[in-house]
Design goal:
The structure holds two protein chains of two kinds. A six-stranded mixed β-barrel of chain A has the order 2-3-8-5-7-6, surrounded by four helices. Chain A is elongated. Chain A is built from 14 helices and twelve strands. By secondary structure, chain A is α+β, with helices and mostly antiparallel strands. Chain B is of the alpha/beta class. Classes of the chains: A alpha+beta, B alpha/beta.
Chain lengths: 425, 234
Amino acid sequence: MLNVLKIALRNLARFGRRTLLTSTLITLGIASVLLFVAVAGSFKAMMIGQFTDAVLGHLEVHRRGYVASIDNLPLNLNMSPAMVEQVEQALKKMDGVEAYSTRVKLGAMFSNFTETTSVRINGVDPEKEVATTPLLPGRLTDGSREGALLKPGEILIPTLLARGMNVKVGDMIVLVATNRDGSVNGKTFTVRGILESITGPSGRDGYIHVNDARDLLRMKEPEVSEIVIRLKDPGQLDQVYAQLSQELSGNAGAEGKSGGAGKSPGGGGLEVHTWAALSPFSNIANMIDLLTVFIKIMLVSIVLVSVMNVMIMAVYERIREIGTISAIGTPPGRILSLFLTEGLLLGLGGTALGTVISLAAIYAMNVWKITFNFGMQQGLVLSPAISPRDVVTIAGMVVLMALLASFQPAWKASRMDPVRALGHV
Amino acid sequence: MTLIRAEHLTKTYRSGEVDVQAVKGVDFAIEAKSFVSFVGPSGSGKSTLLNMIGCLDHPSSGKLTVIGADVGSLDRRAAANFRGQHIGFVFQDFNLIPVLTVYENIEYPLIMVQDWPEQKRRKQITRLLDAVDMSAQANKRPDQISGGQKQRVAVARALATNAELVLADEPTANLDHDTAYRIIRLMKKMRDEFGTTFVFSTHDPKIIGEAELIFTVEDGKLHQSSPQLGVGHA
């Protein structure tokens, strides 16, 4: 095998310019694809992070039917304390969960004493909310980011609302809400801060303390609209989702007590949703993935065509040589392996160089800290990264394609009639 | 001992719409360790005969036995294996592998066709380089040596695996007369030294005389042979 390798290397060196051109093409192809995957992956991860870390969390648990009616914020589909207890018990058992936050969501009338408009409000425990959505304080465009996010009697309002209603930090406002029994209640709040709006569900919601929300709604028991969960490793999303769904499938007792609805992916009247199921951005993320697939297909095509072209030329130009080695008794299998090795070396060389170049470029981009803007978010730092798995997959794919592209010319060489080959002019 | 025996051997090619009978029912026998020449003009069928003897081509009919094997019954793989084990080739255009040195060209059949251990290989190549007087050029590439030197390397390569039979198709066609003569003398010397049977084709009357047995091929038939070592008839 070493001898086949040696001869294959020398044959490649014999047609140095062609080998260099093909290798360069493969090198550029793989470097571009790896860079694209790294940058697109980084962009995607950052965008996902903006949604999950600012509002959505990685997973959310709702009572069955709540998400389907979420535009109405149905108070009659809140989770009962027994259900919440059930979920909390399940979450405490799971290693992958970093934090969770219970929210009471409501629709209310917002008044600055001269004008009134509608607003969607999240009643939250500030500490748990910040632990679960750590980018939330960063959304404060006005109002101090230091200290507690919220105290009872304070409200965070979205920037568009503040602008439209001409409300500033420190102003008093009134929230008026209708509870599940239909009775109306009002409560005065001080504006603690103005929140930058973000795209997607709940991106333009206001925040009040959970106790204020329950007061406003005159809840008899501490109901919860949703439980937002943050994972230690977002890469474990599918596993934690499956595990949590499995855990919650046994909460028939809680359902019985609360008189909740039927079965769901979460089982027993509860539903577990991933951030992707709740956010339209998941479609953009899927498009990025699809784009990556197309780029990979293009790379494969480039490798296939260029290596096949080179190997067909190599066979055509060496017909007499093939006839000679065949005549002196070289087994067809060894002739096949000789040409396959040449194709493989072309692929390996280009792949190795392309991988090194792309990794160096990724490293350089991380050192130089390239920034970009996304919506209201300014100066986001692009941190391209690529997993060893992606590198191995893409490199393996290219090498495999180089091998496959060499197969037809190599097969032709190994099957060549030595008499005809020796007589070739 | 008879090394090659042909009985009613024919070879017909299809050329376009026409069948061309290149070899027309020939019989001959060649003894081991002989130095034999097939002589005839271009297109007479001598290369076809050599190709069949070298298991590069199948007879259309008749029987051809080479070193005990019925070459007509060998499939492609078996024929390649048989050639690799028993037959060496010398070509008109030398056909050395351009990316390999003189040493490596001689080594080629020992590593790519057979599987000789390195020490044994080195010993054999050194011996052959000495025999063909190419030791000083061992590290040169084919494009750095003359035509005569290339053919000497080709002879050494043909002998590398201790082949019992070396077939040389017009080995002197691309050489000047003096060089051609020296190559034929070298082949004869190799026959004497290694006990290898040499069969070569030529249409150069100046070197025909070096053969110990001459088969004259004309229009696919063997017309005559020298009387010394073998017999042949149409």
